[in-house]
Design a protein that fits this description.
CATH class of the largest domain: Alpha Beta
Largest sheet: 6 strands, mixed
CATH architecture of the largest domain: 3-Layer(aba) Sandwich
Strand order of the largest sheet: 2-1-5-6-10-9
CATH topology of the largest domain: Rossmann fold
InterPro entries: Class_I_gatase-like (IPR029062), DJ-1/PfpI (IPR002818), Homeodomain-like_sf (IPR009057), HTH_AraC (IPR018060), INH-QAR (IPR052158)
Number of domains: 2
Distance between the termini: 13 Å
Structural class: alpha/beta
Shape: globular
Keywords: Transcription, Transcription regulation
GO molecular function: DNA-binding transcription factor activity; sequence-specific DNA binding
Protein name: Putative AraC family transcriptional regulator
Pfam family, one: HTH_18
């Protein structure tokens, strides 16, 4: 879905429903608006009139539902309160009926309830905010809900969890449309991490470290700068001046992951960047990111995103 510099911008329509969350409403423009004209955004309501937000103010977008008919991507930000019925809202349904077949649909947090009520998520994978998973399953049992991930990319329909996960999803869309460089630039402008795997857990209960304790962040930064080395738990713990048992416990408290799993995710993330942005061979990339051999790289990349290194490079390297 890459856009050449001379082609028309990708048209994005953001549908603000009554009770919209202002922060999430602004995510599409905040991310896509950092791309020097690759996207053209229009915010609309179901009838062209103002909508209230879940805060103490209302919003007056410049457009009515007619912009949905020309959009290449339609975004439904979250809103509240959530209906207690699976019946679609007539006004929202009438607006969505204007969307052309094949248009990419994107929801953030509770926006998935609108897509599900319209029957667009039946028998498809999706996610929403973890706190609303039980209600979502009750209302929409046909949807293959996964409340434990940040976002789900099912091709023409993408759904995300709340707030920050929406930023992750739009960086993912930008990466898919225009490659890692564009996504990384937008992430730097937004001062957010450029990539978090959609399969990462939404919600990790992390206890606040006791005063005076030493965290694992310095060791994580040290390891990130040396991913090519074969880091063992003992070596990481020694760098942090902790016993392996204490280090593993604190590492999990701070990241929600074991040191080994975290290292694998970082190595896969770096491998993806090198596949996109360099002409290094698969063997060279495997060595540089710390995998024992190219077979290990292929296995871990396939586990993470379901494709081989060569297939991934063919998809994304051309968007540099």
């Amino acid at each position: 879905m890459a856009t050449s510099p001379t082609s028309a911008p990708h048209r994005v329509a953001v549908l603000a429903l009554d009770g919209v969350y202002p922060f999430e409403l602004g995510i599409p423009r905040r991310v896509f608006g950092s791309t020097d004209g690759l996207y053209e955004l229009a915010t609309c309501t179901v009838d062209g009139r103002p909508v209230r937000t879940d805060a103490d103010f209302a919003l007056t977008p410049d457009h009515g539902p007619e912009v949905l008919a020309d959009a290449d991507t339609v975004v439904i930000p979250p809103f509240g309160p959530i209906p207690d019925t699976a019946e679609p809202d007539p006004a929202a349904s009438a607006a969505l009926a204007l969307v052309r077949p094949g248009t990419r649909l994107v929801s953030i947090c509770t926006g998935a309830f609108v897509l599900a009520a319209a029957g667009l998520l039946d028998d498809r994978p999706a996610t929403t905010h973890w706190a609303l998973a039980d209600r979502f399953r009750t209302l929409f049992p046909r949807v293959r809900l996964d409340p434990d991930v940040l976002f789900v990319d099912d091709g023409d329909i993408l759904t995300s969890a709340g707030a920050a996960a929406g930023v992750d999803l739009f960086l993912h869309l930008l990466r898919a449309d225009h490659g890692a460089d564009a996504a990384n630039r937008a992430a730097r402008i937004c001062v957010v991490p450029p990539w978090r795997d959609g399969g990462q857990a939404q919600y990790i209960e992390r206890p606040v470290p006791a005063p005076g304790t030493t965290g694992t962040a310095p060791t994580r930064a040290w390891a990130l700068a040396r991913l090519h080395l074969p880091h063992t738990l003992a070596a990481l713990a020694a760098h942090a001046a902790m016993s392996p048992r204490t280090f593993a416990r604190r590492f999990h408290e701070e990241t929600g992951q074991s040191p080994g799993r975290w290292l694998t995710q970082q190595r896969v993330a770096l491998a993806r960047q090198l596949l996109e942005a360099t002409d290094l061979s698969i063997d060279q990339i495997a060595t540089r990111v710390g995998f024992a051999n190219p077979v290990s790289l292929r296995q871990h990349l396939h586990t993470a995103i379901g494709v081989s290194p060569l297939a991934y490079r063919r998809t994304f390297a051309g968007k540099r």
